[in-house]
Structures are given as C-alpha cells and as structure tokens.
TrEMBL record:
Its EC number is 3.2.2.31. This is Adenine DNA glycosylase. One of its GO terms (biological process) is mismatch repair. GO terms for molecular function: 4 iron, 4 sulfur cluster binding; 8-oxo-7,8-dihydroguanine DNA N-glycosylase activity; adenine/guanine mispair binding; metal ion binding; oxidized purine DNA binding; purine-specific mismatch base pair DNA N-glycosylase activity.
Length: 356
C-alpha cells in the first residue's frame, strides 16, 4: 500500500467529478447541505436503499419543508406518509426528534449534541455533523466498512471486525472537507467497491488497496454466517360493516408501533380473541419477513354482526390502504369487500416492509 495519507485527496478529486446527484446533497465543494435534509435522509436511509428513499424524501420535504413544519404535523399523518418504508420505530423517533429540535430552535452542530436527540445514534450523529456542519467526524456505514476492509485486507468477519474498521477509518478522515469525504466513501462503496464484482480497475484509490494486491477484494469483508430466522404465526381480522372496515392504531411502542392496522394477535406476543362478533372465514395466508423473524399471518374476513370490542370502523370511501404498513397491505389484498376481492386467496409476500 502506498502512503494512505493521500487517500482523502485522491478520493475527493474523484468525488468532485463523479458524485451522485441526490436530493438531500449539496454539490461537491459547496456550502454544507441543510441539516434538516441531511438528518431526514439519514434516518430514512437506515437499512433502506437510496432508490427506495428518494420518493419518500421528496414527498416529506414537499409536505414539511422545515423541521418546524414536521414538528407541527400530526403523528397519524406522519406515520401514514411513512407507510411502506418499514422499520416504523424510525418514524416514531423522527417525530420526537423533530419536536425536540423545534423546541431548541435549531439542530445542534456537534456529534455529541446530535447524539442526545431521539433516534440519533453513533453513525447518524457523525454523519450529520460531518455532512451538514463539516465537522471532522468519521462516518462508517456498510459501504465504508466494505471499502476499509478491502483497503487494509481486514479478514476478521463482521460484525466482530467493526471496532477495527472504525479505528482504521478514523485514521483516514481528513480535517479538510470531511463532509464531502464521508459522502465520497459512501459513493465509492455504492458504485465501484460493490459487494459483488467490485470494479477495481476504475477505482480511484486502487493503488492503495491491500485486498486487490492479494487478489481477495471480492471476498471481503467476511461475514459470520447468519442464523435462520424463527417462524412465528398469527391471525388478522378484517371486518366490514355498513360501508366501513374495522381498523385500529397499534400501540406506540413495539412492532409496527403507531401505524394504522387491522386487529390481529399472536405474531406480536399478544393473545387476543376476535375483535367483534362475526362469522369469520379464512381468506388466505400472508408470508412476511421482519428483521428478526418470519411470519405466517392467517387472514380472516367477515361482515360484522355486532359491535366491535376493539378498534374503530373507518368509512371505506375515506380508507387508504396506502397508509397501512406492508404486512397489513398484504392482508388487505386478500380480504377486500366481496365486490373487490381477487380470485386467488393465497398470497406470499417477500421481505419488503421490515419493521421494528
């Protein structure tokens, strides 16, 4: 490896020419981006792809252009706009953080101050401090871990290698343009130093890469094999009455917390009876994958014959399935009112909509 102290200079020169254009970014070399937009994008990007986030980010910033606007929004409206993005604890923390910042008058401009806000951990606080305030903080996401593991040929498997990778990344972080440097490292990992088939021939810092010199770049970083996810089961009830559908707002904490949903049981640790008198009929089975477990959800549907003991009746003309989290949208696809019900009664979904 050549002198690693020149890596930031070479990488920034590449970034100035090839930076991705993203709606939350400032152009390379210009004044740092708006802290609100940086914060919002970083929260949305946690465990979610750039492609999935763009439309949500643009809708949020159109509805709520400032953190004060977002702080003043109703919880239900924010949760509905977040629906489908997954990991709903992020949305609950987003609301709490926006209100804390609005009360303070502005975002703190240091990593320590940012880390004290709801929902902002070590990575996010460093990212906002570097990108929005040009603080020389070390920003290490999955892309950066991969780049650093290859640069230094770190063969300890993840997640055990994380402390070593952070220390090595800290040794590279420059005092000059740290925000652009952080984004350059992310872009390098996302576009060239990719998980599979890295494009080493066009990498701007390939002369420094120990893994390339050893011919093992594509094998790094190594990862400890994941354990199979346990399978849970549960039941959801979708009831209809007089042009309305039975829904509930889930508890603010826990799985799918604070979201609009259908009454359900079993999969979240609860043990509840059907929510209303009815001749409940099974209409299908939904498969859904959360972060830590897989779920088989039996979907029951009926016209209600008595008053519900749980939830509330929402008029169908005002009911928007788009406001439901992914799991509940899959259930709705099986149990729409009889005139809309699809011919098939079995549906298997993929991993989209992971939540916590």
């Amino acid at each position: 490896m050549r002198d690693p102290r020149v890596i930031p200079t070479e990488l920034l020169a590449w970034y100035d020419r090839h930076a991705r254009r993203l709606p939350w970014r400032a152009p390379p070399g210009q004044a740092p981006a708006d802290p609100y937009r940086v914060w919002l994008s970083e929260v949305m990007l946690q465990q979610t792809t750039v492609a999935a986030v763009k439309s949500y980010f643009e809708r949020f910033t159109s509805l709520w252009p400032t953190v004060q606007n977002l702080a003043a929004a109703g919880d239900a409206q924010v949760m509905a706009e977040w629906a489908g993005l997954g990991y709903y604890a992020r949305a609950r923390n987003l609301i709490a953080c926006a209100r804390a910042v609005a009360a303070m008058g502005a975002f703190p401009d240091t990593r320590e101050g940012l880390a004290a806000l709801p929902g902002i951990g070590a990575y996010t606080s460093a990212a906002i401090a570097a990108i929005a305030f040009d603080r020389p903080e070390t920003v290490v996401d999955g892309n950066v871990e991969r780049v650093v593991a290859r640069l230094f040929a770190v063969q300890t498997p993840l997640p055990g290698a994380k402390p070593e990778l952070v220390t090595l990344a800290q040794g590279l972080t420059p005092a000059r343009r740290p925000g652009d440097y952080a984004q350059a490292m992310m872009d390098l990992g996302a576009t060239i130093c990719t998980p599979r088939s890295p494009a080493c021939g066009i990498c701007p810092i390939n002369d420094h890469c120990a893994a390339r010199a050893l011919g093992i770049a594509a094998d790094l970083p190594r990862k400890t094999p994941k354990q199979p996810k346990p399978l849970r089961s549960g039941t959801a009830w979708i009831g209809f009455a007089d042009g309305a559908v039975l829904v509930e707002t889930r508890p603010s904490k826990g799985l799918l917390g604070g979201t609009l949903a259908f009454p359900s049981t079993g999969w979240d640790g609860s043990d509840l009876p059907p929510p209303a008198p009815a001749d409940w009929q099974q209409v299908g089975l939904v498969r859904h994958v959360f972060t830590h477990f897989a779920l088989d959800l039996t979907v029951m549907s009926a016209r209600l014959t008595g008053e519900p003991a749980r939830g509330r009746l929402a008029p169908l003309h005002a009911f928007s399935p788009a406001a439901l989290p992914g799991l509940m949208r899959k259930a709705w696809a099986l149990a729409r009112p009889p005139t809309d019900r699809p011919a098939t009664t079995r549906h298997h979904g993929g991993p989209a909509g992971n939540s916590s």
